[in-house]
């Protein structure tokens, strides 16, 4: 209870709450963006895309056994990767379409900002956990190989799909972290299925 | 020689430098410059500038810092502010930069006091920016996924300088591009807003004098969102008549922001909104059922939303949507009242039932019909009568009695509860007390004190009082526990008659009435006053009451204002019930102007002026003067009449001398044609009493002259005198006449002595010359005044008189006829003679026969024609004097029968009436 009353606990709770809502909005925006992207890029919405290189998968085994720090670190790594990938997508988008489809570019930029903001939330939470924040370079994905245009489109589709899934997972991770209890870093999460 | 060329070169060099002060870096070098160059200074601070001369100018121009003068916009700076730092530098100091202006110039006062400009700078004075205050931001949702954040702040005082504001915001690890306001300095809008991240926002203001930064605002933009209002609102009626269901769509997904709502609604036509309790709509939703509505009522709905936790702003209200609830059965029976008309027959009533249509919230639908049931309470056996009516009134013919009327309204769903009206045989119950009214804005409050008995309800009747039409009754029912109601639809300045009836369970109380105005005004016109009666000192004024339409309020009093033309106005206040007033103490025979003013509580209005003039005499004054005068006049007249009556004989002689009636003269009987018809036997018949009352026949003895006394001759003297002073109508005829009328002359003289003699004056006379008694005297007429055939002697005399005299005599005759009365006694004898002459031509009037005894028979008239006037008069006197001895007895002693009368047509006058034919 004492921890709940401290400023750090309040800040942690606020960060979690805000992160949950941000992840939720991010997911909604990414879903909308996916529809627009598929349509704009001429792709099939049901097309299967292989795993994108450099993007950690959202699905994980024994999720409920993860510590809070683990959750935060995995989330941070994932969103840093998404930040780099989305920035690359935005660059490629501008190169391909110029200012012809400003709406899609603005949507991509908005999602990119949300990803950045969520990464900031995660970093703040990690600070509260008194954990060091890994450097951006070490967790960042390697420079992507030069791809064809179609491959770029498919990769973009894969990035957005995985980001949508990560948004769902992040909401659950943060809810888990937001629950009052012993140190999140040590004990595994309570039985809450994602 | 060298020195001279040196001075010339120096001057040329100096002129170039001075004429081109700005060309220091150009072709020509300046002789000096000012430090600092074009400074921007804070307003109110001190400032020092230095003017530095070039060394080269010192050598060639022989100028030094001591010669420097400073100017501000061609205005010399006081030398107290100068300071010579060294031979090439001069400074100027300003303690307050507000005194500065542009340009500030450094000048040299060269030889001959010629002022030359060395350098100039532009000085800009202003203020550093203030710290921006009151920074606040709001995020507007402009589309489903588009949000913009607008921040506003107070930029502070005006700096007089170009000051730039920029709105800055950042995340801890990311700084976003600044937002630069366009055209304004107090707001800026950011378009790329990200929620759920605390964003630090602040404003920076920068100008040449400094930089200021507002307080930093750290906020998650999601907490300052003003969302778009819900869209596609629709309303549908449910199964229940009191419920409507609303549907709508939200612009924001729950993932971004959960919303709560406000729902407001109102009845169409009503301006007051009602709201659904906020706790009922505090959770995200897209529909809501509004309950507790009125059946069959059209409602307007509107919705707004905001973030569920209350952070942020309410959206605008959505567009309004309407919906109608379904029908329900009427909630109450219509208010019913009646008017009983007993004018035809007291035993048979004409009952006008009237009821008010139910209000929409009472009718709960469309009223299809009304059911009226009438039950005679005085007769249990009488059947109940039912009527189906679609209007709101019904007329019944009922015998006098007690009835119970029941009214039901029906719509498509069902029937209303019944309204019952008891119509008792008489309204003998207790009335309300202390009925009063009070205007309240646009309503008229009617209050009363309840009777002691329990009252079911009250009926309030009112109508607009009009002088032109009947009172059109409106009515309203109030519950029994109400002590007053507001009457609506009351017009200002109109008089209303309000009556309140209490309705009891077993009967009805008598009505109490009161007149009232919602608002009073001054009368629309003033009374027209006029006088009913005007006297010497009073006037009765009368006027008509103003019509109720003209009154505009309760007439509190009339005011009469009256004045004379130049007098002060007098004011009299009159009770409003009167239509007549008497002004008293007025001045007689004076013009008054009167006007009348009618006053209500809110003002007065004056009628037209009316003028009247008081009478000169009061009532009875004229009578008081006229009656005595008339009485006195009558008395005088009476006395005069009595006097005249007493003296009638005397007056008669003076005024109406007896003129012999020729028709009764017996000379008419002498007509030669009918001489036998004349009867001269009876003296009375020939000369009745009174015909010749005072005819005197004087018998003059020719030798009796001496018997005349002097007294007797006086009248002749007078006559003589008159003749001598008269107008001189002395004609031969006149003279002849007088000469031939000694009898008349004698009479005239007698008139002067006695009235008896006056009446004896005769118009015609015959001079009879007596002969001896036993002889027929020679009869000579001096003239003939008869119409009868003239005697020879007369004819002769006329022959002598000539035609001219004859004409003159005729003229005199006509004049004579106009004033016959006067001529009888006073006219000179010759005039009478003329009259006789003419009368003799046509109509014989009468004769007086004068017998002159012992006188010559020579015609006197002939002789007089030849004499002058005086001579004629003297002859008359002489003749008359000689004839005074004539006596009537003489005539009587010689009566002649008709047969014995000579046919000379000489009438003879005798006293005691008779001709004495000769």
Automatic annotation (TrEMBL), chain A:
<keyword id="KW-0221">Differentiation</keyword>
<dbReference type="GO" id="GO:0048680">
    <property type="term" value="P:positive regulation of axon regeneration"/>
</dbReference>
<comment type="function">
    <text>CNTF is a survival factor for various neuronal cell types. Seems to prevent the degeneration of motor axons after axotomy.</text>
</comment>
<keyword id="KW-0963">Cytoplasm</keyword>
<dbReference type="GO" id="GO:0005615">
    <property type="term" value="C:extracellular space"/>
</dbReference>
<dbReference type="GO" id="GO:0005125">
    <property type="term" value="F:cytokine activity"/>
</dbReference>
<comment type="similarity">
    <text>Belongs to the CNTF family.</text>
</comment>
<dbReference type="InterPro" id="IPR000151">
    <property type="entry name" value="Ciliary_neurotrophic_fac_CNTF"/>
</dbReference>
<dbReference type="GO" id="GO:0043524">
    <property type="term" value="P:negative regulation of neuron apoptotic process"/>
</dbReference>
<keyword id="KW-0524">Neurogenesis</keyword>
<dbReference type="GO" id="GO:0005737">
    <property type="term" value="C:cytoplasm"/>
</dbReference>
<dbReference type="GO" id="GO:0030424">
    <property type="term" value="C:axon"/>
</dbReference>
<dbReference type="GO" id="GO:0048143">
    <property type="term" value="P:astrocyte activation"/>
</dbReference>
<dbReference type="GO" id="GO:0005127">
    <property type="term" value="F:ciliary neurotrophic factor receptor binding"/>
</dbReference>
<dbReference type="GO" id="GO:0070120">
    <property type="term" value="P:ciliary neurotrophic factor-mediated signaling pathway"/>
</dbReference>
<dbReference type="GO" id="GO:0008083">
    <property type="term" value="F:growth factor activity"/>
</dbReference>
<keyword id="KW-0339">Growth factor</keyword>
<protein>
    <recommendedName>
        <fullName>Ciliary neurotrophic factor</fullName>
    </recommendedName>
</protein>
<dbReference type="Pfam" id="PF01110">
    <property type="entry name" value="CNTF"/>
</dbReference>
<dbReference type="InterPro" id="IPR009079">
    <property type="entry name" value="4_helix_cytokine-like_core"/>
</dbReference>
<keyword id="KW-0217">Developmental protein</keyword>
TrEMBL record, chain B:
<feature type="region of interest" description="Disordered">
    <location>
        <begin position="719"/>
        <end position="762"/>
    </location>
</feature>
<feature type="domain" description="Fibronectin type-III">
    <location>
        <begin position="131"/>
        <end position="228"/>
    </location>
</feature>
<keyword id="KW-0675">Receptor</keyword>
<dbReference type="InterPro" id="IPR036116">
    <property type="entry name" value="FN3_sf"/>
</dbReference>
<feature type="transmembrane region" description="Helical">
    <location>
        <begin position="625"/>
        <end position="645"/>
    </location>
</feature>
<dbReference type="InterPro" id="IPR010457">
    <property type="entry name" value="IgC2-like_lig-bd"/>
</dbReference>
<dbReference type="GO" id="GO:0070102">
    <property type="term" value="P:interleukin-6-mediated signaling pathway"/>
</dbReference>
<feature type="signal peptide">
    <location>
        <begin position="1"/>
        <end position="25"/>
    </location>
</feature>
<dbReference type="Pfam" id="PF06328">
    <property type="entry name" value="Lep_receptor_Ig"/>
</dbReference>
<keyword id="KW-0472">Membrane</keyword>
<keyword id="KW-1015">Disulfide bond</keyword>
<keyword id="KW-0325">Glycoprotein</keyword>
<keyword id="KW-1003">Cell membrane</keyword>
<keyword id="KW-0677">Repeat</keyword>
<keyword id="KW-0732">Signal</keyword>
<feature type="domain" description="Fibronectin type-III">
    <location>
        <begin position="523"/>
        <end position="617"/>
    </location>
</feature>
<comment type="similarity">
    <text>Belongs to the type I cytokine receptor family. Type 2 subfamily.</text>
</comment>
<keyword id="KW-0393">Immunoglobulin domain</keyword>
<dbReference type="InterPro" id="IPR050379">
    <property type="entry name" value="Type-I_Cytokine_Rcpt"/>
</dbReference>
<keyword id="KW-0812">Transmembrane</keyword>
<dbReference type="GO" id="GO:0009897">
    <property type="term" value="C:external side of plasma membrane"/>
</dbReference>
<dbReference type="GO" id="GO:0004896">
    <property type="term" value="F:cytokine receptor activity"/>
</dbReference>
């Amino acid at each position: 209870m004492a921890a709940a009353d401290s400023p750090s606990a309040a800040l942690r709770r606020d960060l979690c709450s805000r992160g949950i809502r941000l992840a939720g909005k991010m997911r909604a925006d990414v879903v909308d963006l996916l529809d627009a992207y598929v349509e704009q890029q001429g792709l099939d919405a049901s097309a299967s895309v292989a795993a994108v290189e450099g993007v950690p998968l959202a699905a994980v085994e024994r999720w409920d056994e993860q510590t809070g720090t683990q959750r935060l670190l995995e989330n941070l790594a994932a969103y840093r990767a998404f930040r780099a990938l989305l920035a690359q997508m935005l660059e490629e988008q501008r190169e391909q379409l110029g200012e012809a489809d400003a709406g899609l570019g603005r949507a991509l930029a908005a999602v990119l900002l949300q990803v950045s903001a969520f990464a900031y939330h995660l970093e703040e939470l990690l600070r509260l956990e008194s954990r060091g924040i890994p450097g951006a370079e070490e967790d960042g994905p390697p420079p992507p190989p030069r791809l064809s245009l179609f491959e770029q489109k498919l990769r973009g589709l894969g990035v957005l799909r995985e980001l949508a899934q990560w948004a769902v997972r992040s909401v659950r991770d943060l809810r888990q972290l937001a629950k009052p209890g012993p140190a999140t870093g040590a004990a595994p999460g309570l039985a809450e299925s994602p | 020689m060298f020195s001279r060329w040196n001075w010339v070169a120096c001057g040329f060099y100096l002129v170039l430098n001075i004429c081109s002060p700005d060309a220091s870096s150009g072709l020509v070098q300046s002789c000096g410059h000012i430090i600092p160059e074009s400074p921007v200074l804070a307003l109110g601070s001190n400032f020092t500038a230095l003017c530095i001369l070039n060394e080269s100018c010192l050598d060639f121009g022989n100028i030094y810092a001591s010669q420097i003068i400073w100017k501000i916009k061609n205005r010399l700076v006081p030398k107290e502010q100068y300071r010579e730092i060294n031979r090439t530098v001069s400074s100027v100091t300003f303690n307050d930069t507000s005194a500065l202006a542009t340009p500030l110039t450094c000048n040299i006062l060269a030889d001959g006091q010629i002022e030359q400009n060395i350098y100039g700078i532009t000085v800009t004075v202003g203020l550093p920016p203030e710290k921006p205050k009151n920074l606040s931001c709001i995020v507007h949702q402009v589309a489903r996924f588009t949000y913009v954040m607008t921040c506003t702040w107070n930029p502070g005082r005006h700096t007089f300088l170009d000051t730039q504001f920029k709105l800055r915001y950042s995340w801890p690890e990311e700084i976003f591009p600044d937002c630069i306001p366009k055209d304004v300095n107090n707001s800026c809008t950011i378009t790329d807003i990200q929620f759920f991240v605390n964003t630090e926002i602040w404003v920076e203001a920068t100008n040449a004098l400094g930089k200021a930064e507002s307080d930093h605002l750290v906020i998650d933009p999601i907490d300052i969102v003003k969302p778009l209002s819900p869209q596609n609102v629709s309303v549908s009626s449910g199964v229940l008549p009191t419920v409507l269901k609303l549907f709508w769509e939200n612009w924001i997904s729950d993932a971004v922001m959960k919303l709560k709502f406000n729902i407001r609604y109102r009845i169409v036509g009503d301006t007051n909104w009602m709201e659904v309790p906020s706790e009922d709509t505090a959770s995200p939703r897209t529909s809501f059922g509004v309950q507790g509505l009125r059946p069959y009522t059209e409602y307007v709905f509107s919705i707004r939303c905001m973030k569920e936790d209350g952070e942020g702003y309410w959206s605008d209200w959505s567009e309004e949507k309407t919906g109608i609830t379904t029908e329900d059965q009427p909630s109450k029976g219509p208010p019913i009242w009646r008017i009983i008309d007993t004018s035809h027959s007291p035993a048979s009533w004409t009952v006008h039932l009237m009821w008010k249509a139910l209000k929409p919230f009472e009718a709960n639908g469309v009223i299809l019909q009304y059911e009226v049931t009438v039950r005679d309470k005085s007769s249990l056996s009488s059947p109940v009568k039912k009527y189906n009516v679609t209007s709101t009134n019904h007329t019944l013919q009922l015998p006098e009695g007690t009835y119970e009327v029941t009214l039901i309204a029906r719509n498509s769903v069902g029937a209303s509860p019944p309204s019952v009206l008891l119509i008792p045989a008489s309204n003998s119950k207790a009335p309300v007390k202390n009925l009063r009214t009070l205007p309240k804005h646009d309503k008229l409050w009617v209050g009363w004190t309840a009777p002691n008995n329990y009252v079911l309800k009250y009926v309030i009747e009112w109508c607009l009082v009009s002088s032109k039409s009947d009172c059109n009754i409106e009515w309203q029912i109030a519950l029994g526990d109400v002590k007053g109601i507001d009457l609506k639809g009351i017009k200002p300045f109109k008089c209303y008659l309000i009556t309140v009836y209490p309705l009891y369970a077993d009967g009805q109380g008598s009505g109490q009435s009161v007149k009232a105005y919602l608002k009073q005004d001054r009368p629309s016109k003033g009374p027209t006053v006029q006088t009913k009666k005007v006297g010497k000192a009073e006037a009765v004024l009368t006027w008509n009451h103003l019509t109720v339409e003209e009154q505009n309020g309760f007439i509190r009093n009339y005011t009469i204002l009256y004045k004379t033309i130049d007098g002060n106005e007098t004011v009299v206040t009159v009770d409003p019930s009167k239509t007549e007033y008497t002004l008293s103490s007025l001045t007689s025979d004076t013009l008054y102007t009167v006007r009348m003013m009618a006053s209500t509580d809110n003002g007065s209005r004056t009628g037209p002026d009316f003028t009247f003039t008081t009478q000169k005499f009061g009532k009875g004054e004229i009578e008081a003067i006229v009656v005595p005068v008339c009485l006195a006049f009558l008395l005088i007249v009476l006395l005069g009449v009595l006097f005249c009556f007493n003296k009638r004989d005397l007056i008669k002689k003076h005024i109406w001398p007896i003129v012999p009636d020729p028709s009764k003269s017996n000379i008419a009987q002498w007509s030669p044609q009918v001489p036998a018809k004349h009867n001269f036997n009876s003296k009375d018949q020939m000369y009745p009493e009174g015909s010749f009352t005072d005819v005197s026949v004087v018998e003059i003895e020719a030798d009796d002259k001496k018997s005349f006394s002097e007294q007797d001759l006086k009248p002749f003297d007078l006559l003589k005198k008159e003749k001598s002073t008269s107008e001189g109508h002395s004609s031969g005829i006149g003279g002849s006449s007088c000469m031939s009328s000694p009898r008349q002359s004698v009479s005239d003289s007698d008139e002067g002595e006695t009235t008896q003699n006056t009446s004896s004056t005769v118009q015609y006379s015959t001079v009879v010359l007596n002969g001896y008694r036993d002889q027929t005297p020679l009869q000579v007429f001096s003239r003939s005044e008869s119409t009868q055939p003239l005697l020879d002697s007369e004819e002769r005399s006329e022959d002598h008189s000539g035609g001219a005299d004859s004409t003159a005599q005729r003229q005199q005759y006509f004049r004579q006829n106009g004033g016959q009365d006067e001529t009888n006694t006073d006219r000179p004898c010759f005039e009478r003679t003329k009259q006789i002459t003419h009368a003799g031509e046509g109509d014989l009037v009468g004769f007086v026969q004068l017998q002159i005894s012992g006188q010559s028979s020579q015609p006197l008239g002939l002789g007089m024609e030849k004499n002058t006037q005086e001579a004629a008069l003297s002859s008359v006197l002489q003749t008359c004097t000689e004839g005074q001895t004539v006596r009537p007895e003489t005539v009587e002693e010689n009566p002649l029968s008709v047969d014995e009368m000579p046919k000379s047509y000489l009438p003879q006058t005798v006293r005691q009436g008779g001709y004495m034919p000769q």
